[in-house]
Amino acid sequence: MRDKSSLDKLKKGQRAIIVDLNSNDIPAKFYEMGFLPGTEIEVKHIAPLNGPICLNIIASNSLIAIRKSEAKVIIIDPK
Amino acid sequence: MNNPIIALLGNPNVGKTSLFNRITKLNQKVGNYPGITVEKREGSLTANNKTYKIIDLPGTYTLFPNSLDEEVVFNILVDQKNKFKPNLIVVVGEPSNLKRSIILYQQARELGLPAIFVINMIDEAKTKGIQIDIPKLEVLLKTKVYQTNARTGAGIDKLIAAFDAVPPLYIGNFDIPADYALAVGEAKKLFPLENEYSTWQYLAKGNVEFLSDEKNAALEDIRKNHKLTPQILQKQESVQRNKNLEQALSTIVSKDIDSKSVTNGIDKILLHPILGYLIFFGVLFLIFQGIYNWSGPAMDFIDTQFADLAAYVQSTLPAGPLPDLLSNGIIKGIGGIVIFVPQIVILYIFISLMEETGYMSRVVFLMDRWLRPFGLNGKSVIPLISGVACAVPAVMSARNIENSKERLVTMLVTPFMTCSARLPIYIVIIGLVIPDTKFLGFNIQGMILFALYILGILAALGSAWLLNKIIKTKHKSFLIFELPTYKFPDWKNLFLNVWDKSSSFVFGAGKIILAISVILWALGSFGPGDKFNNAEEIVKQNNPTLSDEDLDHEISSYKVEHSYLGYLGMVIEPIVEPLGYDWKMGIGLISSFAAREVFVGTMATVYSIGDDADIEDDASKRTILSKMKAEVNRNTGLPAYNLASGVSLLLFYAFAMQCMSTIAIVKKETASWKWTLIQVGFMTGLAYIAALIAYQALK
Question: Where residue B257 falls among pLDDT bands split at 50, 70, 90?
Fold first, then answer.
């Protein structure tokens, strides 16, 4: 198993499993929209110059965009 | 019960509004919820021998609100005294995201609300290879599950027949976690009549609007004593529900692993780091072109119709103050409102198309990075772009920004964007003071006009940056949004949306514009003393050789000079003199505070060329321009419109908050006189200083 990493480090096309959301500042909306421990995601698009990233939540096949700053506190296990 | 209330509840992008249109057969109206400006869509349906009231609640992912829209949903569902409290809730879901919808359903049921469940867009189950075991789902949800396709109308009748359903008793499957039982137990004492889950909801929410201050404070104390935050509680609920549902749904929903989707292919182009931006700017360019070019004929048509109507009224009714009020005050006032309808319609067709197809959220994705440094949000793009047409609908479109600070800043800076009402003034003044020559092969006048648009954008971003430093907030800025799959627009939705927005402009903002034009008419049509009342004789005596037509113009000009409006202009002359204006331009400025576009008409009256001046028409443009060009400022002895005063005037119009309708809508949307007045003061103060510096430097 590789080291745990955070979501903002993933490259386009990479998949990972969410391990935890490492902050109390993250609004509950993130959980409700599918960022839950155990969820598999794939990075679909990355906006240039530190822009938001767009993720595909594999199980529901939905596309969700979040900012890099929030991606930083989402701990993942890369595949 | 007489008029049972049925509320549609669901996530965004599940086709809820299309379903609402189907159920109500378009028998609906759009208003606001009392006191706030969240759009309320309400309709009626006669079926099953009674009339139902149908409410389309704003789309929400959760009952824990993050935005104003979501707050409304919570209040309607949970507040026992809310007058829209529904008799039955129809929770709308769609095949690919059932889990999210079911969570909403469970939350509603556990609050003690009767609800049924609908899977809309059922056709997508087949195209996406999703199988749903409906009988098993019904057992899980303890209610009937209906399947509809709002676009074709399939399944709607069956759903309507179920509106009298009394769903069986529901026992929740959310267990208050043991760690929090003590806190919830304490909170329960505050609400002896409500169930445990309602209490949990209160505790897990920040501030509950409809509870008394004491109860909110008591809840806060409980949270503090137990070291809880709403986030922790909400997270707890969300994680537990998702886990339980994941298990339960694994035997109900099955999916063929997805083939390549069309959406992904389109996104590869539209979200491309370079191509994506090029396409977006292409779309913007098309919108600009549409607003300016396509609306021309329609605006000319409206203009002539109202001018003809006014002339007809004037010629058929006997002369006197009342018919004059009707023709010059009211009809022209209404004409001044209706003339913007073509531009607003075109703008909203584009915006609705972008929303309906799913492109709008791609724009948010592309633009967030560029707006964030200014304290704005990717979602601010929509108001800012719309502001180029008109700030009124633009300010309204800021509603879906979750973060209250970003929403406020967006609304405060949007009026800096160069709206279409500034355009006629820019055209006239640029024509007067900027030479019509070429520089490096480009027309200088065109370059100045372009520079003014850039100036508007810079002013908006600059003041956003400033406000961002000043306004403090405890909410952290965040951005999370779904990019829906691309869809063909539902034309019915598009038409309704455009209709709602244009009619609310005409009737809402229209009232104010109308009132102001009546006041302006009165101030311009009456005056104290002999000079005003005997204007005709005085002018005739002074100009015995004039032809009849010129005499009429001269009289109306003399009247304006000695009307209340004229005296008002002279009173403010000392204030505008340092900016390089005379009293006539002062009148133009005063009347512009109603709406900028009034400037050209007022100038036309003041410079006595009759107030039918239509700057689209080349011949009359020349007459205003030549009259204005010949005008001499009596304070300086120089031409009234020289480079210095012209640039000063352009800057004043670029920055000043001169639009009653925008002021009214900002007050409505911010629900705060404080911010509205700060905005008016800041914009107008900036305008004054910029104009002052420009004039003093250039003169």
Answer: low
Cα–Cα distances (Å) from B397 to B34, B56, B386, B433, B512, in that order, read: 18, 18, 8, 36, 20
Question: What's the Cα-to-Cα distance from A43 to each of A17, B173, B189, B268, B364, rounded to whole Å?
Answer: 11, 34, 47, 13, 17
Question: How many Cβ atoms are within 10 Å of B682's Cβ, its own excluded?
Answer: 17
Q: Where are the domains of chain B?
A: 5-161, 178-255, 507-641
Q: Which residue has the higher pLDDT, B337 or B159?
A: B159
State yes or no: pLDDT of B683 exceeds 80.
Answer: yes
Mutate to test the interface with A, among B242, B480, B483, B485 (most CBs of A within 10 A): B480
φ, ψ dihedrals at B586, nearest 5° = -60, -45
Q: How confident is the model at residue B259 (pLDDT cuts 50, 70, 90)?
A: low
User: What global pTM score does this model have?
Assistant: 0.76
Task: Enter the ipTM.
Answer: 0.93
Region B212-241: what's the mean pLDDT? Answer: 85
- Tell me: the pLDDT tens digits for B567-626? 888 888 888 889 988 888 887 887 787 777 777 767 766 664 444 444 555 555 555 667
Read off the tokens for B361: 């959220």
Average pLDDT over residues B624-653: 81
Looking at the predicted structure, is the pLDDT value of residue B38 above 70? no
State the architecture of B5-161 in CATH terms: 3-Layer(aba) Sandwich (3.40)
CA distance B261 to chain A (A): 10
3-state helix, strand, coil in chain B (%, to 5): 65, 10, 30
DSSP string, B586-640: HHHHHHHTTBTTHHHHHHHHHTTS-TT--TTSHHHHHHHHHHHHH-B-TTTSSBS
Can you name the residues that pair with B254 across neighbouring β-strands? B131
The shortest CB-CB distance from B365 to any of A32, A36, A47 is to A47
B482, A61: Cβ pair inside 8 Å?
Answer: no
Best mutation target among A7, A23, A30, A31 (most B Cβ atoms within 10 Å) is: A31
- Tokens standing for residue B425: 């003034």
A5-78 CATH fold: SH3 type barrels. (2.30.30)
Instruction: Enumerate the residues of chain A whose CB falls inside 8 A of the CB of residue B258.
Output: 61
Region of A38 (left: φ > 0; alpha: ψ -120 to 50; beta: rest) is left
Determine, for residues A65 and B481 on separate chains, whether the beta-carbon distance falls below 8 Å: yes
Burial of B258 (0-12, 13-18, 19+ CB in 10 A): middle
Helix B643-655 vs helix B583-592: crossing angle, to nearest 10: 20
Rg, Å, chain A Cα set: 11
Q: Which two tokens stand for residue B375?
A: 């304290």
pLDDT at res. B611: 46
Q: What angle do CA B679, B683, B685 make, to 5 degrees?
A: 115
pLDDT at A1: 46
Helix (H, G, I), strand (E, B) or coil at B609: coil
Give pLDDT tens digits for B262-274. 888 899 999 999 9
Question: Distance of alpha carbon B24 from its chain centroid, rounded?
Answer: 25
Query: Which of B66, B238, B372 comes nearest A31 by C-beta?
Result: B238
Instruction: Give the per-residue pLDDT at B325.
Output: 77
